[in-house]
Amino acid sequence: KAGVTQTPRYLIKTRGQQVTLSCSPISGHRSVSWYQQTPGQGLQFLFEYFSETQRNKGNFPGRFSGRQFSNSRSEMNVSTLELGDSALYLCASREQETYEEQYFGPGTRLTVT
Amino acid sequence: AQSVTQLGSHVSVSEGALVLLRCNYSSSVPPYLFWYVQYPNQGLQLLLKYTTGATLVKGINGFEAEFKKSETSFHLTKPSAHMSDAAEYFCAVTYSGNTPLVFGKGTRLSVIA
Questions:
Q1: What is the C-alpha separation between A34 and A16, in angstroms, rounded?
Q2: Collapsing DSSP states into helix, strand and coil, what is residue A83?
């Protein structure tokens, strides 16, 4: 099976713009989680979607949003970008409803200037 | 609230030496514990996990970890370091399997020839 894919891999945006990142889970996986990774804060959970429904949400402002489509592909959107949003955004998928077996994609490196 | 502390943001060992990466967790209920590895420009790969049962867990690439409830620890070890082990290692905890993982800040492992 193909692994988790994320597009684009690298992105440069200007402060105030918005951005959409995409994640395609492993075939058959219904759950997608998003994480933000920064040198200062480490890995922080953004949100999780299971069968098109948001099931968990981390402590991030409303500028961060996401959705999941019927084919389990997921997108996350960040509006009104700030310099502090520069990070590696990781997507993870799993087949089961528990967090035991998550498979991570390579991430999207977002740079906000 | 759950938390994970990884002692040492950077550990350096000689090739062939013992690898010991420390992880202590805080959880009010029995935890599920994980170790992930991240190579440069890649996502996270699951090394091993503890959910229930045997407290000594063996993972991929010769790594193992022991769950010690009395010490609230889940340290990662490998008897003999290889150059290919150089990467960043993350310890993570959840307590129900249905709540998102909480990650430690990570430990960067360097292996010296």
A1: 22
A2: helix
Three-state SS at A61: coil
Give dist(CA A24, CA A9) in Å, integer: 13
Nearest to A99 among B43, B90, B94 (CB): B94
B45 to chain A: which residues are within 8 Å by CB? 104
Between CA A74 and CA B110 the distance in angstroms is 35
State both tokens at B7: 């002692």
Per residue in B3-33, pLDDT (tens digit) is 899 999 999 999 999 999 999 998 777 889 9
Residue B72 to residues A26, A40, A42, B32, B67, Cα–Cα distance (Å): 34, 25, 21, 12, 8
Prior bond of A39 cis (ω within 30°):
no
CB of A106 closer than 8 Å to CB of A45:
no
Q: Rounded CA gap, A55 and B31, in Å?
A: 20
Question: Which has the closest alpha carbon to B47: B56, B67, A80, B38?
Answer: B38
Which amino acid, A15? R
Nearest-CA neighbor of B65 among B47, B83, B81, B52? Answer: B47
- Establish, for the pair of chains A and B, how many residue pairs have beta carbons separated by less than 8 Å: 52
Q: Give B40-70 pLDDT, tens digit per residue.
A: 888 999 999 998 888 899 999 999 999 999 9
